[in-house]
Specification:
The protein has 194 residues and is an alpha/beta fold. The chain is built from 5 helices and 7 strands, in the order ββαββαβαβαβα. Helix content is 35%, strand content 22%. Strand 6 (137-142), helix 4 (149-163) and strand 7 form a beta-alpha-beta unit.
Length: 194
């Protein structure tokens, strides 16, 4: 597995600390425990760059990773985690919304959904929010290694139908299935922005 040059730059808990260098940004968002950190680590071929945890809601800031010295991967806090206080969830929600709404550098959002389950109301709301604000996005169905070939097909079709888009990529952080397609989407989005 080829390693992509990546470095953690900062964890922002307030828009004032977002990077100001105007590099393109690719945001990763999804429910808590959908496998965002695992996907980032497997995409980059770097173990432990994004911290994984069996405890949902671990990412509590917007984390910026500089990729190949030219653009950022942005790991947003997971939404829908019930064991966090309402105040904290509201603060994360506002931070995520401000990031998505106010970053001209944002060239692509990757919405992660768990292939083993039908997309949730929260996933549908996030997708509608992205669409409403005219933000380009793709959906990545994670954890497909836990499904049979037939179940994968059904999961992909279900995600397409529920979320109303054909921009859906099945992905496994274990086997790296789908990584080529995800990289293609990312690189073409970054290239179009420059």
């Amino acid at each position: 597995m080829k390693e992509t040059k990546a470095q953690f730059v900062l964890a922002a808990t307030d828009p004032s600390s977002f990077p100001r260098d105007q590099r393109a940004e690719v945001a990763f968002l999804g429910r808590s425990n959908v496998g965002k950190s695992s996907l980032l680590n497997s995409l980059l071929g770097v173990r432990g760059l994004a911290r994984t945890s069996s405890t949902p809601g671990r990412t509590q800031s917007i984390n910026f990773f500089l990729i190949e010295q030219s653009y950022y991967f942005v790991d947003l806090p997971g939404y829908g985690y019930a064991k966090t206080s309402k105040e904290k969830r509201r603060a994360w929600g506002q931070l995520i919304e401000r990031y998505l709404a106010e970053r001209p550098q944002l060239v692509l959002s990757i919405l992660l959904v768990d292939a083993r389950h039908e997309p949730t109301l929260s996933d549908l709301q996030m997708k509608s929010w992205l669409q409403h604000h005219g933000l380009p996005f793709w959906v990545v169905c994670t954890k497909v290694d836990k499904l049979s070939a037939n179940e994968r097909r059904k999961a992909q079709q279900q995600a397409m139908a529920t979320l109303g888009t054909d921009r859906v990529i099945p992905y496994s952080s274990i086997t790296r299935e789908g990584s080529g397609q995800v990289w293609e989407v990312i690189r073409s989005s970054v290239a179009r922005s420059s």
